[in-house]
């Protein structure tokens, strides 16, 4: 005991530690003169959630009344094991964490971003420090060995449902675990090895969902309890009746940890194999299907004013069902086991069970009045449980992927879906192929069926999009007047539609999310056409949609003036279920930014011919009366044949001032000078 605490010191430390563990956050309330935050709404991510692979979707919600106690008891047991082994010079935790506890919240904290920021500055350092001490009892301080943080995309929605909040470990330049202070010396080699495996396995641990400090948010969390009364969860998918999917992505279904610090409640009955999603589908082969039925109110797209007011997805109010589906999908995206729902003064914790596709939810509790356990103790257990879970799953995954000696037993392929190259996957079961140009035929069709087949996505049913604008690359056979709106039919023959299969995400920006895609069409005589090198831009909110519509008009203007070296546009399409618009174009290759070997350097090698071509394209754009206003390496592209393209005209202006039109020689040097290109 010479290097450890005396009996009196242990008792003093234990009493002080119990005081810290019983701390609760202060009660938050909105100032009388503060404007109320926006009500919780559905973010654009809800569109993607409808396309998650059916073996990854949520099928049931179950109550988990003992979860809070299980987590806090685990934290208590871990602390009791290490408290007598702490160094003699250990600082009392109440002293170490005083600055975080004294960081009082602003009375105007209302939004999810502000609530997450408060948690990050006050509660996360305390819980993380205590969890670190349990893992590294010989460390001389109470500092964190890991971080808690929140990220939000550039086009984030104000309701907090489309961001990432999680635990993560820092990495050095080589991708290894990065530690500070004496953590490196006091960490046991086995724990370091385990955490290195976690970093290689997943970068994000856990999922936090913050909602604004409103009564509506509290009602949403309270309403989650009613979902456990249902036999199954009605997972929302696209409402297009469509045959069973043909190609299946190569995907290994993640497994649960072999053991956890909680005991899941037993279920009374197995979940039916026929899920709500599968009920939308007609289980027939692609070659035999002749009619596709679309659930849609016919009158909606007949009025453009209705579209302007109703299509943006973020305006849809959240329900307990949609909240749970969004959170589950976010956990699937990051492969998280635990989800925390927080709205300021109230909270729920949930466990995602992968094998049964079940979400186990705790009771709703007031975080300002937690007793036995206190809020800090609960979240220390929460942090430890998630880290231990990640370690266990990383180990199990590594064991599954390590080479083994040959065995007479057949490998278990139940959780691995068939793998085919993209081209073969799309051509599977297709007997006849046509030499006709696919997108030329697609330009004559107004109904587009959008599938997703990448990462966690494999659409149980496609989204139905109606053409909003003509194809700019191929002429339609029928002359359409300005303002023409295609009629919406209740059902479509397969040769009246064309399909677009999204196969990757290329990037995201202020205008929308950009995807790589492939098109598939069936002709009236049974032949099949495939176009593999496409790009689909998706926009969901009002401002990005306005910019995308403007971008289409710019491309139309350039097409009318015969400008080449810009994307070939096949049309703008609108989601029949509301929420998204899609711009379909050809893939122009790789950006100059992405082609740079060293991204820290600004210079990129281009051939003299390519440089000349970029100058020529820009000059033609200017002569057509258009200024790009966003010329940079990310918007200059070169395809596989070495052809140059200028893309992303969402910021461009038509018919600029006369003094700018004098810039007619197309010189990029001048374009980058006084007058933006």
From TrEMBL:
The record's listing under PROSITE patterns reads: PROTEIN_KINASE_ATP, PROTEIN_KINASE_DOM
Q: Which positions bind ATP? A: 537
| Protein kinase domain ranges (all copies) | 500-677
Q: Name one GO molecular function term.
A: protein kinase activity
Q: Does the keyword ATP-binding apply?
A: yes
- Keywords on this record? ATP-binding, Kinase, Nucleotide-binding, Transferase
Segment Disordered: which positions?
396-424, 657-677
Q: What Pfam families would the database entry show?
A: Pkinase
What this protein is called in its record is Protein kinase domain-containing protein
Can you name the source organism?
A: Mycena indigotica
């Amino acid at each position: 005991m010479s290097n450890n605490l005396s009996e009196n010191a242990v008792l003093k430390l234990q009493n002080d530690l119990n005081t810290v563990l019983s701390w609760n956050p202060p009660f938050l309330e909105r100032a009388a003169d503060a404007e109320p935050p926006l009500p919780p709404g559905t973010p654009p991510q809800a569109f993607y959630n409808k396309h998650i692979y059916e073996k990854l979707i949520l099928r049931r919600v179950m109550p988990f009344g003992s979860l809070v106690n299980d987590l806090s008891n685990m934290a208590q047991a871990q602390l009791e094991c290490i408290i007598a082994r702490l160094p003699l010079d250990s600082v009392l935790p109440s002293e170490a964490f005083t600055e975080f506890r004294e960081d009082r919240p602003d009375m105007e904290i209302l939004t999810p971003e502000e609530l997450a920021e408060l948690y990050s500055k006050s509660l996360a350092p305390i819980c993380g420090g205590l969890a670190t001490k349990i893992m590294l009892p010989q460390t001389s301080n109470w500092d964190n060995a890991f971080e808690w943080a929140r990220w939000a995309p550039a086009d984030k929605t104000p309701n907090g449902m489309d961001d990432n909040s999680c635990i993560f470990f820092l990495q050095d330049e080589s991708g290894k675990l990065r530690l500070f202070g004496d953590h490196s010396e006091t960490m046991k080699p086995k724990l370091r090895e385990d955490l290195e495996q976690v970093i290689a396995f997943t970068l994000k641990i856990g999922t936090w969902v913050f909602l604004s400090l409103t009564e509506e948010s509290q009602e949403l969390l309270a309403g989650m309890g009613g979902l456990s009364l249902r036999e199954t969860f009605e997972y929302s998918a696209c409402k297009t009746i469509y045959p069973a999917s043909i190609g299946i992505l190569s995907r290994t279904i993640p497994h649960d940890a072999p053991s956890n610090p909680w005991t899941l409640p037993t279920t009374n009955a197995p979940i039916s194999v026929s899920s709500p999603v599968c009920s939308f589908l007609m289980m027939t082969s692609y070659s035999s299907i002749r009619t596709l039925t679309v659930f849609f109110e016919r009158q909606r797209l007949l009025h453009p004013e209705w579209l302007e007011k109703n299509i943006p997805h973020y305006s849809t109010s959240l329900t307990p069902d949609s909240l749970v589906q969004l959170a589950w999908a976010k956990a699937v995206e990051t492969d998280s086991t635990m989800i925390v729902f927080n709205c300021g003064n109230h909270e729920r914790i949930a466990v995602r069970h992968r094998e049964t596709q079940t979400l186990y939810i705790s009771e709703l509790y007031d975080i300002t009045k937690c007793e036995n356990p206190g809020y800090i103790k609960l979240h220390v257990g929460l942090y430890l449980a998630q880290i231990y879970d990640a370690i266990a799953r990383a180990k199990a995954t590594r064991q599954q992927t390590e080479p083994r000696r040959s065995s007479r037993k057949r490998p278990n392929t139940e959780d691995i879906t068939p793998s085919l190259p993209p081209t073969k996957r799309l051509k599977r079961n297709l007997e006849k192929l046509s030499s006709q140009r696919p997108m030329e035929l697609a330009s004559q069709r107004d109904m587009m069926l959008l599938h997703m087949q990448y990462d966690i996505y494999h659409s149980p049913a496609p989204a139905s999009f109606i053409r909003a604008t003509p194809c700019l690359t191929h002429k339609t056979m029928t002359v359409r007047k300005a303002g023409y709106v295609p009629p919406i039919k209740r059902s479509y023959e397969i040769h009246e539609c064309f399909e677009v299969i999204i196969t990757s995400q290329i990037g995201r920006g202020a205008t929308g999310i950009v995807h790589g895609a492939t098109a598939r069409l069936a002709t009236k005589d049974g032949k099949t056409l495939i176009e593999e090198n496409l790009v689909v831009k998706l926009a969901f909110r009002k401002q990005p949609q306005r910019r995308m519509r403007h971008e289409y008009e710019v491309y139309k203007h350039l097409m009318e003036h015969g400008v080449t070296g810009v994307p070939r546009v096949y049309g703008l399409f609108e989601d029949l279920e509301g929420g998204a618009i899609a711009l379909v174009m050809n893939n122009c290759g790789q950006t100059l930014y992405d082609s740079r070997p060293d991204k820290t350097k600004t210079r990129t090698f281009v051939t003299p011919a390519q440089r000349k071509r970029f100058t020529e394209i820009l000059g033609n754009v200017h002569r057509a009366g258009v200024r790009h206003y966003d010329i940079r390496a990310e918007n200059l592209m070169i395809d596989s044949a070495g052809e140059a393209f200028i893309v992303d005209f969402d910021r461009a202006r038509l018919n600029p001032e006369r003094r700018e039109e004098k810039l007619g020689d197309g010189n990029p040097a001048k374009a980058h000078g006084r007058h933006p290109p």
